[in-house]
Structures are given as structure tokens and as C-alpha cells.
Automatic annotation (TrEMBL):
Protein family (similarity comment): Belongs to the GPI family.
UniProt-recorded name of the protein: Glucose-6-phosphate isomerase
Cellular localization per UniProt: Cytoplasm
NCBIfam families documented for this protein: PRK00179.1
Length: 542
């Protein structure tokens, strides 16, 4: 059924009018008028408590935003995803990352195949492999146990595993060294392997397509590195693959018996809970990996069944739509107050921007509204001493998600209370600021007062959980996956393709031989690219 264009939807028009009425209102007033809002504008699921009261909304705004979600077809589209319909229309694929974390006893038949049974077959093989590596039963070519695991992959085949490994470091076997190589810049590979003993090192070549230039280049260098030390025969004990493409894996020289598969219905950026998470499973063990999956599933079930008024992904997505489309916000900052989540914002960059960085609708019409905002962030409190100034007093509206925890995994003196005080202080300062009157009352000289005024009215969500566990991490990642889904439904874009990345890849393939041949190439690019290629050829010759 063709979707009504966004701007023509009745709820959109109602929101436009409502925005005109309330956009000038300050959070100070909204809180003064309604002292109960801090307790009421909250929701909780899968171990995550959300306080969304410090947003520039009233009950009426939320009602209209949820109307927009409904009118955009959220219920039908969500059902279609969970059913396995090919909702990735430009690639005619199902989008079934939710099946990756369904419990064994569930069945989901798509195209005559029970995908949940397939998922668990791979999970069982991964668990068996992880037990063999972790127990020392699987040895390297010289008989030494594996001590080092190097995941080679990029994009979704890297960011999820790196983020989850860092996030769950507390739960990892500390006698195993995990490294992640992604960049085609050789420095990445060289630095990651320089202190490793090849006889104790396992490479996991992770690539959905097994055709990604960066990953294949690094995989070849990894093979050279290993073969130089241990010989050709060592490859079988030191290389495994995670891919959907058995043919290419075999072509590369990895025995497909040592390949862990997944399926074309898992998007790269939605794949950390598939076999792409093998490195994470090796680090934390199969039981904790099962907990991670259970957390994803907790949030999936919440997203699928909770009413919109209490549905965390729906609420957070619709708030982001409010700021992007009605306040013109260009970016959203995600600020975890948990050092272990230091790579979470980087992970979210791919998840959110590769998904919703689109400018045509699913039917191919150019949009006449903004879509995916820039997501960015850093762990607190470091960000506070860096870019928060702009969020507090700059000219742009930047909604923020603050993520805090009740307990530290590394309790030490009063560090955790100091950390958490900052979560609450930032949300409070952003919302309420400091008026000129207040500043002057402190005795500030009149000429300095304007510099010290904090406008406030800067929106934030606060997410609070007890402590960072594998299960909680799963729920947190699934929360953002579903936020992206809901945004995509409203903006009517295909959140699951990434054609924009392709052109650059094709052009790089064309330029590479022009950089390296002995003969001066005939260049037919624009004058800038031609000149840069010529200059580079001169530089590389030294
Ligand atoms: O960046 C584009 C992309 O296709 C991502 O979507 C994907 O996660 C990444 O490249 C890596 O692809 P692959 O797993 O096939 O190597």
C-alpha cells in the first residue's frame, strides 16, 4: 500500500501547528506547571529506565507524536519485519536480526525454512568452538594453545564486536588477548600483531560478503604473517571465517568446516549477535553470549508488544523525529557514563547513519524533509571537558541521551557517585540553565553576566540501569536498533540498504592501478583528482 507522504499526514500537520504553539515554552515553565512530570514521563523495560521528562514536550505533544507513528504504519511495518517479509525493498530481502536472538524453542518459518533452528545450529557450533579454544583443546599448528584472537573485518563486521568486547571486558577471560583489525591502512594490522606469537594466534576473518577490499587485504597480510613464521600448512589451525559466502571463503583457502555462516537477511550493521560475534563469544564464553542474546530478545519483545506510550524505542524515536523535523536538530549526542561503553557511540554511528542516511522514500521519491541526524558522542565525563560547552551555550539544538548506571563494575572510593552526580547535573543544567537574574544575584559584574547565562531548554533523555551486564548490553543495542527502525518507518526510507557506500568502493577500484603502474597513466578524472593522483605518484616514489 503506498504510504501517504509524510507532510500530508494529518498527524504531521497537527504537529506543525502544535510546534508553533509550544516551541517557545521553556522546560522551566513545563516543570513548574506540572510538578509530577518527572515521575510520570518515564518508562521502563528490559532493565532500562527511561526518564524523558526533560524534553520540550507536553502530554499533547507525545499524543500527537504517537499518532504520527501510528499513521506512518508502525504497527504493520513492525509486524512485517518480525514475520520476515522482504521489507528491505531495494534489495528485496527480509530483515530478521530479531530472529538471531529468538530462543531455541521458538520457530519462525520464512520461505519454508525455520530460521530460528538455523540460527541455533550455528550458535551451537560457535559455542563448541569457543569451548575448544577456551579450554586449550584446539591448539595451533605447533601444538600451543590459542592465546590471541584477531578479528579481521570492517563496518558491521568490526564495530559491533569491538564495541561489545570493550563493553564486556569485565566478563572476559583476561588471559586471552583480543585485537581488531579493520582499516586497510597497514598500520592497523602491523600494530595489532607486532607483539603476538603466530603459534598462539587465531585469525577470524569476518565478512558477510567476503568481498570487502579492506578485509581481504588484511586477511592476505595475516596469512603472509602466519605463513612466514609457521608455513603454509599452519593456515588450517589459525584461520576461521565468518561469512555468508562459502565459495569465496574456500577460494581464500579457509576450510569451510571452519566457517560460521549467517544469512542475507542479517544486515552488516545488525550482525553483532550473529556469528559475527564469534570473537565476543570467545572472549566472554558461550553462557555470557547467551545472556547478551537474551537481552536483545527482552527488548525485541518489549518493542513488539508494549503499548506505544510505554514503548522505549517508540518514545525515543518519536522524540528524535520531533527535534529533527520540527526543531531542525542536525545531530543527537549519545553520552554513556560508563567507561566500558567507550566505543558505543562509534558503533551507533554506523547503525544509525548507514541506516537512515537516505534521501529518497521506499518508492524512490525525493524526500522534502530531513531524515537521519548525525549521531555522535563520547563517554562522560570526558565529553564534558571537551564539547559540552557547545551543547550548553552554542547556537544549535543538540538533544542528548545520557546513559548512567546504579553500580560500577569497578567500585573504587567515591568514583561512581562522582560520575553519576555528573549525569544528573548535566541533565539539570541543560534543561534549566541559569538566568541572567540568577547570575547577577551571585554578584557577577553586569558585563560578564551575559557570558555566564545558561539558556537551558536543551532536551535530554536519561537512561538508567543497575549495572552493565551482557544482558543489559543486548537490551541497549536492541533499543537503538529499534529506534532506527521506527525513525525509518516515519521517514519512509529503506533503513536496511546502503547504496551510498558503493560508489566510493567502485571508484577506489578504478583509481588503485592508476597509482601504482610504472607507466604514467592516461587520467580522465576531473582536474583536481588527476592532479592529486600525479602528486601522489611523485610522493610514493620518494
Ligand atoms: O560499509 C558498507 C558495508 O557494506 C557495511 O554495511 C558492512 O557492514 C561492511 O561494508 C562490511 O561488509 P562485509 O561484512 O561484507 O565485509
Amino acid at each position: 500500500m503506498p504510504t501517504v507522504p509524510l507532510r500530508d499526514r494529518a498527524s504531521w500537520k497537527a504537529l506543525e501547528q502544535h510546534h508553533a504553539e509550544i516551541s517557545g515554552r521553556h522546560l522551566r515553565e513545563l516543570f513548574a506547571e506540572d510538578p509530577g512530570r518527572g515521575e510520570r514521563m518515564t518508562a521502563e523495560a528490559a532493565g532500562l529506565f527511561l526518564d524523558f521528562s526533560k524534553n520540550r514536550v507536553t502530554g499533547e505533544t507525545m499524543r500527537l507524536l504517537l499518532d504520527l507513528a501510528r499513521e506512518s504504519g508502525l504497527d504493520e511495518r513492525r509486524e512485517a519485519m518480525f514475520r520476515g517479509d522482504p521489507i528491505n525493498t531495494s534489495e528485496n530481502r527480509s530483515v530478521l536480526h530479531v530472529a538471531l536472538r529468538m530462543p531455541k524453542e521458538r520457530a519462525l518459518t520464512v520461505g519454508g525454512v525455520d530460521v530460528v533452528a538455523e540460527v541455533h545450529e550455528v550458535l551451537d557450533r560457535m559455542a563448541d568452538f569457543a569451548r575448544r579454544i577456551r579450554s586449550g583443546e584446539w591448539t595451533g599448528h605447533t601444538g600451543k594453545p590459542i592465546k590471541n584472537i584477531v578479528n579481521v573485518g570492517i563496518g558491521g563486521s568490526d564495530l559491533g564486536p569491538v564495541m561489545a568486547y570493550e563493553a564486556l571486558r569485565h566478563y572476559t577471560r583476561r588471559d586471552l588477548t583480543l585485537r581488531f583489525v579493520s582499516n586497510v591502512d597497514a598500520t592497523d594490522f602491523v600494530e595489532a600483531t607486532r607483539d603476538l606469537d603466530p603459534a598462539e594466534t587465531l585469525f577470524i576473518i569476518s565478512s558477510k560478503t567476503f568481498g570487502t577490499l579492506e578485509t581481504l587485504a588484511n586477511a592476505k597480510s595475516a596469512r603472509d604473517w602466519l605463513v612466514a613464521a609457521l608455513g603454509d600448512e599452519a593456515v588450517a589451525r589459525h584461520f576461521v571465517a565468518v561469512s555468508t559466502n562459502a565459495e569465496r571463503v574456500a577460494e581464500f583457502g579457509i576450510d569451510t568446516a571452519n566457517m560460521f555462516g549467517f544469512w542475507d537477511w542479517v544486515g552488516g550493521r545488525y550482525s553483532m549477535d550473529s556469528a559475527i560475534g564469534l570473537s565476543v563469544m570467545l572472549a566472554i564464553g558461550p553462557e555470557q553470549f547467551a545472556e547478551l542474546l537474551a537481552g536483545f530478545h527482552d527488548m525485541d519483545e518489549h518493542f513488539r508488544t508494549a503499548p506505544p506510550e510505554q514503548n522505549l524505542p517508540v518514545l525515543m524515536a518519536m522524540l528524535s523525529v520531533w527535534y529533527v523535523n520540527f526543531f531542525g536538530a542536525q545531530s543527537i549526542a549519545v553520552l554513556p557514563y560508563e567507561q566500558y561503553l567507550k566505543r558505543f557511540p562509534a558503533y551507533l554511528q554506523q547503525l544509525t547513519m548507514e541506516s537512515n542516511g537516505k534521501s529518497v522514500t521506499r518508492e524512490g521519491r525525493a524526500v522534502d524533509y530531513d531524515t537521519g541526524p548525525v549521531y555522535w558522542g563520547e563517554p562522560g565525563t570526558n565529553g564534558q571537558h571537551s564539547f559540552y560547552q557547545l551543547i550548553h551555550q552554542g547556537t544549535r539544538l543538540i538533544p542528548v541521551d545520557l546513559i548512567g548506571f546504579g553500580r560500577s563494575l569497578n567500585p573504587l572510593r567515591d568514583h561512581h557517585d562522582l560520575l553519576t552526580a555528573n549525569v544528573f547535573a548535566q541533565a539539570e543544567a541543560l534543561a534549566f540553565g541559569r538566568t541572567e537574574e540568577e547570575v547577577r544575584a551571585e554578584g557577577t559584574a553586569p558585563e560578564v553576566a551575559p557570558h555566564r547565562v545558561m539558556p537551558g531548554n536543551r532536551p535530554s533523555n536519561t537512561l538508567l540501569a543497575e549495572r552493565l551486564t551482557p544482558r543489559l548490553l543486548g537490551a541497549l543495542v536492541a533499543l537503538y536498533e529499534h529506534i532506527v527502525f521506527v525513525q525509518g518507518v516515519v521517514w519512509d526510507v529503506d533503513s536496511f540498504d546502503q547504496w551510498g557506500v558503493e560508489l566510493g568502493k567502485v571508484m577506489a577500484g578504478r583509481i588503485t592501478p592508476e597509482l601504482t603502474g610504472d607507466q604514467e597513466p592516461e587520467l580522465s578524472h576531473d582536474s583536481s583528482t588527476n592532479a592529486l593522483i600525479r602528486r601522489y605518484r611523485g610522493l610514493r616514489q620518494g
